């Protein structure tokens, strides 16, 4: 079940914990995609907080929000680039996006397989996606004070397996949100230190969110049907001799077997052949 866009916007933009989470997730995404110049970057779910660093760099940025969640105008200070869409039917052509970010989308989806197929359709061949989901073993998935406490949590391996089943090749998995999901001032002041320590130790099992970068793979599948028979060089040149190749025809039973009559009916002109009476 999708959260309401009003609740998501309030968390990320009006609470100190949400702003700290926004910085941590942006740092993780930026570490995987340091340069998107000239690319088309698409976000789905509530990916607006993660798309902001790319607004002045990418050729095009589009933020898609599912109808079950609702939509809000984004960004507030410039032309709107957000749109309300059906969860599994995006108004984008095939292979449109060079980069795709899905946040608060997969874990809340009512039809995860259909959503993954739509992600695969919209992403360009060899394009890359980042899927953000609550970490099953982290503290954030066990507390409902943040959006990561709702929906289906995933471990890193589970999320990789789901992507592989829909023709995505996982490239790397990172964690984010190592600090406690608390609004208390003490924990908020130490949020940056928790993120630095978590990245240094690579303690993905303790992270609140798991981020999997994957590449869309395109495989050439063999077409069904009978194989064509290749002609031998002798068969290819047969039509140039002017004499067709005789074909065997059923003959009379002689001595318990059949003989080829094409050899018995031939003789000199005007004279009966050896096989004629």
Number of structurally distinct domains: 1
Biggest sheet, spatial arrangement of strands = 3-2-1-4-5-7-6
How far is the first residue's CA from the last residue's CA?
Answer: 93 Å
Write down how many β-strands occur, each being a DSSP E stretch of 2 or more residues: 9
**How much beta, percentage-wise?**
15-25%
Q: If helices are DSSP runs of H or I spanning 4 or more residues, what is the number of helices?
A: 8
Structural Rg: 33 Å
* Broad shape: globular
Query: Any idea of the CATH class?
Result: Alpha Beta
Q: Please provide the ordered H/E string of secondary-structure elements.
A: HHEHEEEHEHEHHEHEE
Q: Helical amount among residues, as a percent range?
A: 25-40%
- Major beta sheet summary: 7 strands, mixed
Are there runs of 5+ residues with pLDDT below 50, and where? 252-277
Integer average pLDDT: 85
CATH architecture: 3-Layer(aba) Sandwich
CATH topology descriptor: Rossmann fold
Give the class from helix and strand content and strand pairing: alpha/beta
CATH homologous superfamily identity: Vaccinia Virus protein VP39
């Amino acid at each position: 079940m999708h959260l309401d866009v009003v609740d998501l916007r309030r968390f990320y933009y009006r609470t100190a914990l949400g702003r700290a989470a926004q910085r941590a997730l942006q740092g993780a995404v930026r570490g995987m995609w340091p340069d998107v110049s000239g690319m088309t970057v698409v976000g789905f779910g509530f990916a607006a907080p993660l798309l902001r660093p790319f607004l002045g760099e990418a050729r095009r940025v589009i933020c898609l929000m599912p109808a079950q969640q609702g939509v809000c105008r984004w960004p507030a200070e410039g032309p709107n680039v957000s749109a309300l869409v059906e969860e599994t039917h995006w108004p984008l052509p095939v292979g449109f996006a060079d980069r795709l970010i899905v946040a608060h989308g997969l874990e809340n989806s009512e039809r995860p397989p259909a959503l993954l197929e739509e992600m695969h359709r919209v992403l360009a061949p060899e394009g890359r996606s980042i899927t953000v989901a609550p970490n099953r073993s982290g503290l954030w998935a066990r507390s409902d004070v943040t959006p990561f406490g709702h929906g289906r949590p995933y471990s890193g391996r589970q999320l990789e397996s789901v992507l592989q089943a829909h023709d995505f090749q996982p490239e790397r998995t990172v964690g984010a949100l190592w600090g406690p999901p608390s609004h208390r001032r003490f924990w908020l002041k130490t949020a940056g230190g928790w993120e630095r320590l978590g990245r240094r130790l690579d303690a993905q099992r303790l992270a609140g969110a798991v981020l999997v970068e994957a590449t869309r793979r395109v495989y050439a599948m063999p077409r069904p049907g009978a194989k064509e028979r290749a002609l031998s060089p002798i068969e290819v040149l047969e039509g140039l001799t002017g004499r067709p190749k005789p074909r065997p025809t059923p003959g009379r039973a002689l001595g318990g077997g059949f003989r080829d009559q094409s050899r018995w009916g031939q003789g000199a002109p005007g004279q009966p052949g050896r096989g004629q009476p």
